[in-house]
Amino acid sequence: MRPLPSPARNPYWRFLVAGVRGQSAYPLATLAGLTANATFGLLKGGIMGAAVDSSGGELAGYSAATMAAFVWLGQGMLGSVNFWGGSDLQNRIRTGDVAVDFLRPVSVQAAHVLTDIGKGLFALLPRGLPSVVIGLLVSHMALPPDATAYALGLVSLLIGIAVSHATVYLVATTGLWLVETRGVSVLYMSLSGFLAGLYTPVYLYPDWLLTLALCTPFPSMMQLPIDVLSGRVTGADAGQHLAVQLGWLAAVLVAGHLATRAGRRRLEVQGG
Amino acid sequence: MNDARSSNENVIVAEGLTRVFTGRPQRGSRLRRTRHVAVDHLDLTVRAGESVGYIGANRAGKSTTIKMLVGILVPTDGRVTTAGLHPLRQRRALARRVGVVFGQRSQLWWDLPVRESFTILAAIHGLSAAQERERTAELVEMLEMGEYLATPVRQLSLGQRMRAEVAAALLHRPELLILDEPTIGLDVLSKQRLREFLVAQRREHGTTLLLTTHDMGDVERLCDRILVVDHGRLAFDGTLDGLARTVGARRELVVDLAVETPDLLDVAGTEHVRSESGGLRQRLAFDPQRTTAARVLAAVSERVEVLDLSIEEPDIEDVVREIYRATR
Lengths: 272, 328
Description:
The complex is a heterodimer.
Chain A (H helix, E strand, L loop, with lengths): L10 H13 L3 H28 L9 H14 L10 H8 L2 H5 L5 H31 L8 H27 L1 H4 L3 H15 L10 H8 L3 H4 L1 H7 L5 H30 L8
Helix pairs in contact in A: 1-6, 2-3, 2-6, 3-6, 3-12, 6-7, 7-12, 7-13, 12-13
Chain B lengths: L9 E14 L10 E14 L3 E5 L6 H8 L7 E6 L8 H7 E5 L11 H11 L4 H14 L15 H13 L5 E5 L7 H18 L2 E5 L3 H7 L2 E6 L2 E6 L1 H8 L3 E7 L12 E7 L4 E6 L6 H11 L2 E7 L3 H12 L1
């Protein structure tokens, strides 16, 4: 009788763990990231708080407390989602090291996306939680109203992290055609944070821009998880948020899979 | 089940294998795209258990061939099967049966301890916990990796990392091991260790070996068949002896003598190359097929006291150049 395989023998589980452990190798960089997060959080909190005040204590459905939650939850997520568009895969395609990835009997997409999700999950501890604690100390940020909201918020957060890294994977696959994709990353960087709700809630945008944002996967990476985590949406609305996120996750994963399959035939491994 | 392991099976079959790279034309120029034929209608068969050295000048097409054999580059024309599989369509199945080491690339996890990389690779290849333990222990012992198993890969020396790379490629007991410049940058001792290990692996597991190298020592100690590629075509296919006969792969014995000595012109089986420092150092070329270094040394010692000596092997570049000259 063969015993049931333990998760430790599953390669995809190992990729996730490798991401977590790899990220934990750089405590100083993590601390620097937290410091930057907190600094920008104070700035953002000041600006957004003033904006809510000046419009009479309510702005696009945000109160001072829910706006503070928007700011500090967003800052907390920054280490776990990817808004700069670069990735290990991008480098590995540029240098040709991606050859090694294709020489393994596993899905290249799953290997990369899971490793990056692992890094993102690790960052929740040293960067995510402290940001929220700082937010609680410096503001009266709103908290999820009940246990269900916490649970749904956590699920939404995990899907958001997955959408982010699956999308960045898709961005990196353009390298299979272009080799040098820093330009693509810059484009991604300039769009993603803006449309995801990194700077202000997307609900503050004019209708046409809000519609545009909602036609991209970016709100699923940050705005929607924050909505659920902060209790801004609850019950069926929260369920709808999760459904939208899952839809985008499926879309970017399928696109990434197709891009990998097509791009592999174009790949000219760089270097000897 | 594993038919390819039986000794007569072909592990690699390439027919008319061709790869053309087209470069983009210079901006503003009306020239056509540049065209570089890296591999040109190459026919190649490697049988199970063979140990093949694949040598040639830079840009001769070595790496391009290897990339096509393992399915990370699409051929422009021709066919190739590796371990009986179609490298592109059956990528994952092939990856289970082939191990590849690129001397300049790493398959280890940079930030993690060496041991961790082996654990992940064992999971990737579906080894059981027991298989992983047994195989890792064997490789750790043979490659003397015990003292740095807990060290993150980024802190290893090149020699340590290369041993770990080779172990990583062999963890799943592939029937074909492809090594692209495995000893590049290694010191003499590290090279020696790695070669001894590879010889032992072949002896114990019958692993088929295909390696590219710029190091004649690798070829002499590891390979029983040599392929020389030139402009994407095979310029030579035969044994080391055959190669030596074709190009006269001579060695040079360099002796430092106790006193200034006239040129040693008539030592049996040698040819005097040159003398330095007024005859204190002399170079004698000999053909290892006809005499031995020991015999030459004995002959010299009869005449004059030898203080020090070294043996220089022919550069692979020289051998290749000779082959190119002979075949063009």
